[in-house]
Amino acid sequence: MHSPHDPYDPYVRVRGAREHNLKGVDVDIPRDVLAVFTGVSGSGKSSLAFGTVYAEAQRRYFESVAPYARRLIHQVGAPKVGEITGLPPAVSLQQRRSAPTSRSSVGTVTNLSNSLRMLFSRAGDYPRGAERLDSDAFSPNTAAGACPQCHGLGQVHRTTEELLVPDPSLSIREGAIAAWPGAWQGKNLRDLLDALGYDVDRPWRELPAEQREWILFTDEQPVVTVHPVRDADRIQRPYQGTYMSARRYVMKTFSDTKSATLRAKAERFLTSAPCPVCGGSRLRPEALAVTFGGRTIAELAALPLTDLAGLLHGGSETARVLTEDLRSRIAPVVELGLGYLSLDRAAPTLSAGELQRLRLATQLRSGLFGVVYVLDEPSAGLHPADTEALLTVLDRLKTAGNSVFVVEHHLEVVRGADWLVDVGPGAGEHGGRVLYSGPVAELASTEESATARYLFDEAPGPAREVREPRGWLTVGPVTRHNLRAVTAEFPLGAFTAVTGVSGSGKSTLIGELTEEPAGVGRLVRVDQKPIGRTPRSNLATYTGLFDVVRKVFAATDAARERGYGVGRFSFNVAGGRCETCQGEGFVSVELLFLPSTYAPCQECGGARYNPETLQVSYRGRNVAEVLDLTVEDAAAFFADVPAAARSLGTLLDVGLGYLRLGQPATELSGGEAQRIKLASELQRGRRAHTLYLLDEPTTGLHPADVEVLMDRLHGLVDAGHTVVVVEHDMTVVAEADWVIDLGPGGGDRGGRIVAAGPPQRVARAEGSATAPYLARVMP
Ligand code: ADP
Ligand code: ADP
Ligand code: ZN
Ligand code: ZN
């Protein structure tokens, strides 16, 4: 027997966890295992894994490395937990709040760029007589490496005759040069040309080519004396003016003007084109003169990682060591189904799931051991064909001597765990207890567990009748990213699932559905982008519910007596809000070396309002307390306020009853943001035929939540609308009327429609990576 304070105790022991909805949780989890946290949305999994275990590890770390950070720790608050023993240092790989900066790329996120630069610096082939370059000289983000022409941007703005002169049948006097400024300035330029001897009355297209070239593009700025002709009855004196070509004028305005309107006008006459000096590679010529295996670093960075790995072989000893290191670091990225990405791919164009898996692959080489990794649904965006590889990677982290704690819903990942912590049974107030903690198989006897019902009951649901489409929507031919003239047909009035491995082209295909397509009244994209980027937006502001709440408060007797209108109850305008935090409830704390963090405002304690506003209450609660209610409690509280009840009802319908009304947008996961958007769409009750597009709507959802969501989506189709989802969850795909399977692989190995048809048919399709997994769940 080990006691909690025994240093050899192999367990992380949590006692009295009360973060968020946790009800004094006690749980013991072995170290050095893959432990999976399960439970319905809002049950408290993240509060336990991230809010308690990870937060406590981080707090201890801060205290040990940065004593000056104590004040911050004090402000941010330690997790509400009695005690945790046996806790190793923690590393978190979380999806929410991990927005990368625009200059980062796959290469920088994985550190592979550094290694590739090292390879070029040390083992590249240099032109005869050239000096060896430092590895910095191969980075477009350093002064040493950036192309001097475009400053490392890879693009330059240029203009063309077609843009500057849209209608060549006009003469200069008639306004042929559309890019010229209006009024006096434009007239002046015309008079200067006239004085220079150009014919300003001939149609533009009849002017000799070299004249047109000079007028539009010259870099000369001749000073000319203009002798104005008698203009009606005004007599002007001769004056001197400086001519400036149309290009010069546009470029100057674009780069110098402070007026947004002028800048926008100038931009209409510009196109961006790859920089002529570096060809878009962003690097200076000296760096591009160096090659490895006959290719420049820019060429290698543009290749899919799978292909790059195939080219990295060393001749010299140095090259051998460096290429081996690179290949061994690319391997886990490829294993995690991301071999179609290239190093130069900009990080902001990656999905949250892709980014997390990249970070995960990178961790494999960090050489850390004895830490606990805390992950948030690493299967997000992953095709079932790649789940096995994910488990292998997690297993390797564990074998290297670490603990791996993951919050997951994907049943294959859950089955692969060594240890399971099931939280529940319900969401919010109805959850917050650990129902089971132990090996996976023994969960079966835990009756209360929603997870147990899905994990052990493998019988497919009853067969659904496939709907007859009301018509077809043709999309394409699409040639974009890896799609080559792909044409897809989407059935109208039906439910379509788009499937395929990561990188096969699913998002690219449905991204084409942007215009209001013919035959459809409206297109509604319900994506996972945040509903707001600051703590100022939350679900109440997003859905319009907060407008109703403010009206309710303004209508109370107390508010009327004090003359408080609806604006008084807003935290976004001065008046009722706390001025210290300007209604954010939080202040941002900047800390040396660490990412900036939000800490509760010391003035209002996070309430967001000033004390006078908080004196007004409605049925015993002030506005801050109302914002603190969960959707579920608010639904009871506002049951007799129809406008509020309606929007709260739709939020309950999509399984968000556990969210608090004022929960800042920055704290919501992608899946939650998506369901909020869906709810506010449902609330509008559209009558016109609408096409709803959803990208992996089951992300973050327990199978029990998926069932609820599917009921809503089928309800939309039954009401005559069209639903298209990108999905990896085969139980959802099996319930669709139509499946479009892309692939067969990712990147250049994909981009085709491998199969299309009702799920029964696609489940039998040859050469489809999806078919075997779909077949398993078909009734
Ligand atoms: P899960 O990870 O199981 O989906 P969470 O741990 O995120 O659940 O949420 C559990 C409960 O705690 C929910 O009722 C949720 O609204 C609440 N909660 C989550 N984050 C916060 C927060 N930052 N402040 C207060 N309550 C929160
Ligand atoms: P899926 O949605 O099936 O995961 P995507 O449509 O995102 O696939 O990607 C298909 C291909 O297009 C991949 O090779 C991917 O790297 C490429 N791709 C996707 N988005 C971009 C982008 N913004 N810039 C460049 N390439 C992209
Ligand atoms: Zn350049
Ligand atoms: Zn404040």
TrEMBL record:
PROSITE patterns: ABC_TRANSPORTER_1, ABC_TRANSPORTER_2. GO terms for molecular function: ATP binding; ATP hydrolysis activity; DNA binding; nuclease activity; zinc ion binding. Residues 466-769 form the ABC transporter domain. It holds the Pfam family UvrA_DNA-bind. It is found in: Cytoplasm. The keyword DNA-binding applies. Keywords: ATP-binding, Cytoplasm, DNA damage, DNA excision, DNA repair, DNA-binding, Excision nuclease, Metal-binding, Nucleotide-binding, Repeat, Zinc, Zinc-finger. GO terms for biological process: DNA repair. One of its GO terms (cellular component) is cytoplasm. Transmembrane segments: none annotated. Belongs to the ABC transporter superfamily. UvrA family. This is UvrABC system protein A. It comes from Streptomyces cellostaticus.
